[in-house]
């Protein structure tokens, strides 16, 4: 049991970053060493659970995850963690893609379900790339299907908001090309 959980522990931190690799498609970061910091770490061998608390920071290349708490857990027969939950006020994720674009996400809770290849941002969820942003109470990203679904809580004044910002140079470039 200890040997199996030791394997879980060593793989848990590495597997935590899988959703961001697929989401960001930034491959060069994953060839870099990973550094995980927290003020406290608790390993529950009996229940196959690793909990990092108090100013959790994960760095790998340009990838940065910040949370108040990160929990990695595995079902009884699993050899590695299959569910990862980062919580904060908010928990944040950022990464610079290989092409130089930045992806940022934040939510009160970021959950990755490895077996389903699904990432859920819940509670004040926001995701942005470049000048485009989406926000809602729940944002679900299916990594396999490459689909994003944002929903509101259904309460009054609760809405999903997506903002697309046009290229600022479009009108001025058009006018400059028409009037040499």
What percent strand?
over 45%
**Oligomeric composition of the shown chains:** single chain
Q: What is the global morphology?
A: globular
Number of strands: 10
Q: Which consecutive residue ranges, at least 5 long each, have pLDDT under 50?
A: 1-25
Q: Mind telling me the C-alpha Rg?
A: 19 Å
What is the H/E order? HHEEEEEEEEEEH
User: What profile does the largest beta sheet have?
Assistant: 10 strands, antiparallel
What integer is the average pLDDT? 75
Fraction of helical residues: 10-25%
- Work out the helix count: 3
Give the end-to-end Cα distance, rounded to a whole number of Å. 75 Å
Protein structure class: alpha+beta
Characteristics of this structure?
180 residues, alpha+beta, ten-stranded antiparallel beta sheet, 10 strands, disordered N terminus
List the helices and strands and how they pair.
Layout: H1 2-16, H2 18-24, E1 34-37, E2 40-44, E3 49-60, E4 63-73, E5 83-96, E6 102-113, E7 118-129, E8 132-142, E9 147-151, E10 161-163, H3 169-178
Antiparallel strand pairs: 1-3, 2-3, 3-4, 4-5, 5-6, 6-7, 7-8, 8-9, 8-10
Q: Your description of this structure?
A:
The chain is an alpha+beta fold and 180 residues long. It is 18% helix and 49% strand. It contains 3 helices and 10 strands. It has helices spanning 2-16, 18-24, 169-178, and strands at 34-37, 40-44, 49-60, 63-73, 83-96, 102-113, 118-129, 132-142, 147-151, 161-163. Strands 1, 2, 3, 4, 5, 6, 7, 8, 9 and 10 form a 10-stranded antiparallel sheet that branches. The protein is globular. Residues 1-25 have low confidence and may be disordered.
């Amino acid at each position: 049991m200890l040997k199996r959980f030791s394997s879980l522990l060593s793989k848990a931190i590495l597997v935590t970053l899988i959703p961001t690799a697929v989401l960001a498609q930034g491959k060069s970061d994953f060839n870099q060493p990973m550094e995980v910091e927290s003020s406290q770490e608790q390993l529950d061998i009996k229940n196959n659970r690793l909990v990092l608390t108090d100013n959790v920071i994960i760095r790998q290349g340009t990838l940065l995850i910040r949370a108040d708490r990160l929990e990695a857990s595995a079902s009884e027969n699993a050899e590695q963690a299959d569910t990862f939950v980062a919580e904060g006020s908010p928990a944040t994720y950022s990464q610079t893609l290989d092409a130089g674009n930045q992806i940022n996400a934040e939510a009160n809770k970021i959950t990755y379900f490895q077996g389903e290849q699904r990432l859920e941002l819940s509670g004040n969820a926001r995701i942005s790339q470049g000048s485009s942003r989406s926000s809602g109470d729940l944002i679900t990203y299916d990594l396999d299907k490459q689909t994003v679904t944002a929903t509101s809580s259904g309460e009054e004044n609760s809405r999903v908001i997506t903002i697309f910002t046009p290229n600022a140079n479009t009108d001025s470039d058009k006018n400059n090309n028409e009037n040499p």
